[in-house]
Write a structure and sequence with these properties.
This protein has 21 helices and eleven strands. The chain is an alpha/beta fold and about 475 residues long.
Length: about 475
């Protein structure tokens, strides 16, 4: 596999925890571009749980294929990584974190990897955090590892690295910074003060649909490039990395790599949550009820695609404040084009999971914004009705509902009409706030849409 042509091989300037497919398809592609002119930003990728990815990439000298899945496919060899470290390489990982050449530590460890409680603060009772406080030299958690690196730098009188979480955890920078300070306060109060004073943790938002690698991907790479690459990754053409601009050289470098620097990450997060995620959930519930399997399949349904477009345009965008650098109508068009991409098979079943946790933020907040102004957002009300109809259909067919509250949802939706099911959901505070119990006009609209969707009366269900 031919290495990207550069004047110098990359040297390590970034330590990244969690070298899964998303990191390798997303952030590493940005850094790979930056390395063309700035070789000091190579990534040392650290796996905290498994050595499999590290071993595969080490065998390939750190090189792998990024396949862009679009109507016009593209293939690119990524050579952004300078080193790969497995869980057993703890000593080397700590040495890198203490190295002054490392200016940035990034993470993609999933939301649960930060060991936070439901309110977003550090869970000091989490088994990994308990372990790391007792044995800080051999951390298990990403918070423990970052603390170990910062403690080594404080002791040596070395400036701290920038910490940058890259999981879609709302307000991620502030939450991770607070978690680091909270851990340090329980471990070494003087370190907590040093972190609070010197360590920068910008908020971020990342976006790109990244399906899991499969045999079809490996076969395509072999056919197109003539190599066997079992570390190949794939994603859609669209990629977004939004970073809070802290007027820092690290942020500036990532801006040169193509990231968007802003003082309003929250505005981008809100637009993504309501426009993209809200539409995704709607497509999942309505699409499954209408017999579709994937997002692209559902967008081939003209009735459903038109409903989604109207919901974004008429119900969602009017609730969003202007964000400098973000064209909301252009973003709407880009989202719809992404949904139609036939090369990305995004399963509706996957998107439909965990609805009780997603619905309040993806659709409920838009409803609340309209109701505060006395408006009825008919498309959003219909979308919420589709979730209820989905629950009713699954419960009565005996199909498990994939949700942390799945068994409870099944019990609530097993009998009665949609009005009764909605009342039970409101009383249980599942998917809906108690405020809806006092809003008979909105509740009636949701129940009517839900019953129509359950009965297959789509002219009524999507009449918003």
């Amino acid at each position: 596999m031919a290495r990207p042509t550069r004047t110098a091989p990359p040297t390590t300037g970034i330590v990244h925890f969690g070298p899964g497919a998303f990191h390798r398809a997303h952030q590493a592609a940005y850094i790979d571009t930056l390395l063309d002119g700035e070789p000091g930003w190579g990534i040392a990728a650290v796996s905290l749980r498994s050595a499999g990815t590290v071993a595969a990439l080490t065998e390939q000298q750190g090189l792998y294929t990024l396949a862009i899945r679009d109507i016009a496919p593209a293939y690119r060899i990524i050579g952004a990584h300078s080193r790969f470290l497995a869980p057993d390489d703890a000593e080397q990982t700590l040495a890198l974190l203490a190295d002054p050449a490392v200016r940035l530590v990034t993470t993609t460890v999933t939301e649960k990897g930060y060991c936070l409680t439901a309110d977003g603060t550090l869970d000091l009772s989490h088994p990994d955090i308990v372990h790391d406080l007792a044995a800080p030299a051999v951390p298990r958690s990403v918070i423990g590892w970052i603390i170990a690196g910062l403690a080594a730098r404080q002791t040596a009188g070395i400036a701290p690295f920038v910490v940058m979480p890259c999981d879609n955890l709302a307000n991620n920078g502030a939450k991770v910074r607070a978690a680091l300070i909270g851990f340090a306060q329980a471990h070494a109060p003087d370190l907590a003060t040093w972190i609070a004073t010197h360590v920068r943790v910008p908020g971020t938002m990342v976006d790109s649909i990244t399906p899991a690698a499969d045999e079809a991907l490996y076969a395509d790479v072999a056919e197109v490039l003539g190599v066997e690459d079992r570390a190949a990754v794939q994603r859609e053409a669209f990629a977004q990395w939004v970073i809070e601009d802290l007027d820092d050289p690290v942020c500036a470098a990532l801006g040169r790599a193509g990231a968007t620097l802003t003082d309003n990450v929250a505005g981008y997060e809100q637009a993504k949550l309501r426009i993209l995620n809200g539409s995704h959930s709607t497509l999942a519930y309505a699409g499954l009820l209408r017999g579709h399997a994937s997002v692209a399949d559902a967008m081939g349904d003209a009735t459903l695609a038109g409903f989604i477009d109207a919901m974004i345009r008429d119900d969602i965008i009017p609730t969003l404040p202007p964000v400098a650098g973000l064209d909301l109508d252009g973003y709407r068009s880009a989202v719809l084009a992404r949904f139609r991409n036939p090369a990305i098979v995004h399963r509706l079943e996957q998107i439909a999971a965990d609805g009780s946790q997603k619905i309040p933020y993806r659709l409920g907040d838009t409803l609340a914004a309209h109701r505060a102004q006395g408006r009825l957002p008919r498309h959003v009300l219909a979308a919420l009705g589709c979730w209820i109809a989905f629950l009713m259909q699954r419960a009565r067919a005996g199909v498990p509902i994939l949700d942390p509250a799945g068994s409870v949802l099944a019990d609530l939706a097993a009998t009665g009409d949609a009005r009764a099911v909605l009342a039970r959901l409101i009383a249980a505070r599942l998917g809906f706030s108690g405020a809806l119990a006092e809003d008979s006009e909105a509740a009636q609209s949701i129940a009517l849409a839900a019953q129509a969707a359950f009965d297959g009366d789509w002219a009524t269900a999507l009449s918003g």
